[in-house]
Amino acid sequence: MNRRKKINQLLKAHAKKASAKLAPKSKNKYISKADRLKLAAETAQEPDTSPES
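The chain above was modelled as a monomer; its predicted structure follows.
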């Protein structure tokens, strides 16, 4: 029983690692509130310098 349990445990662990490696990363990198405000301010300033031809 112990030997069978240990082998199953190892097989499950390997399968879990393999599936985690194949799974897409769903979470994006965390951006702090201050950084989000900075980015919003920068993007608000950029449309002012649009090229007109």
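The radius of gyration is 25 Å.
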